[in-house]
Amino acid sequence: MKTALITGATSGIGYATAQALANLDINLIICGRRQNRLDELVSNLQTKVKVYTLNFDVRDKQDVFQQIENLPKEWKNIDILINNAGNAHGLELIQDGDIEDWDAMIDINVKGLLYVSKAVIPQMIEKQNGHIVNIGSLAGKEVYQKGNVYCASKFAVDALNQGLRMDLYQHNIRVSAINPGLVETEFSIVRFKGDEDRAKKVYQGIEPLTANDIADIIAFVVTRPAHINIADLLVLPTAQASATLVNRI
Ligand code: NDP
Ligand code: 8X3
Q: What structural domains and CATH numbers belong to the chain?
């Protein structure tokens, strides 16, 4: 049986991916800061697969390395890493942006992804096998007004997806990116700091993607035969053609 480590498994895309991979009989190391959500997933999934939880903030370099390095022996062999933890914080013109929000997005979406990858890659190189799936975004392909630093963080994920692939392919490690458009999760609630009405408006008048839609695609990507690497996927709701072209009714 394979093992996957999923960051940001407490909500949205990560939570749905944990469920989808459990249905494929993949054992799971699920990560996040909200222990109650991790516990909930364990009780939902432990009849299907083995589940281990890691509670860390991906910004905490020391804790990320310590917890991954100190995994029990039977959990040290990670076949699939899903780099999913991340969020937008704020939606402001650059001149009005909050520096704390900028730090959060760069530290979580970019540096956090790097720390977790760096902690997991050595054993993948050792066994000359592995698959890293990075959750980027349409915002990593196209900049939109007020998206500035969030877009920059996701453009960095796009660059890292390419860079990781170039550096790791000789070790038989697949590196894939899934870049979604509008997915209704807790994403906009976090972006708007708990303002649920404003968050709902982001998805009003369209049928957005769901976390399960993206989880299905991740499940497809990680179950391709070993000679196939789906390197880069852009996934949009039918009602969305670009970051700003959204067909609302
Ligand atoms: P959610 O807000 O529902 O989930 C975000 C997840 O990231 C949570 O599990 C959260 O866990 C985790 N996370 C956030 N900050 C940290 C941190 N500092 N340390 C550890 N974990 C953290 O959003 P989504 O599911 O939508 O987002 C998942 C990914 O998908 C993100 O990378 C996002 O940028 C990307 N994405 C989302 C889109 C959308 O429209 N929703 C579109 C394109 C990409 P916890 O709070 O428990 O730590
Ligand atoms: C999330 C998609 O368009 O809200 O990455 O930036 S968007």
A: 3-235 (3.40.50.720)
pTM of the model: 0.98
C-alpha dist (Å) from residue 54 to 17, 34, 69, 97, 184: 16, 10, 12, 32, 25
Nearest atom (ligand 2) to Cα of 243: 3
Residue 203, classed as helix, strand or coil, is coil
The 10s digit of each residue's pLDDT in 110-155 is: 999 999 999 999 999 999 999 999 999 999 999 999 999 999 999 9
Active site residue 154: yes
Minimal CA–CA distance to 154: which of 143, 164, 166, 167? 143
- Catalytic residue (one of 127, 150, 193, 203): 150
* Active-site residue identified among 15, 141, 154, 203: 154
pLDDT digits (tens, 9 = 90+) for 197-210: 999 999 999 999 99
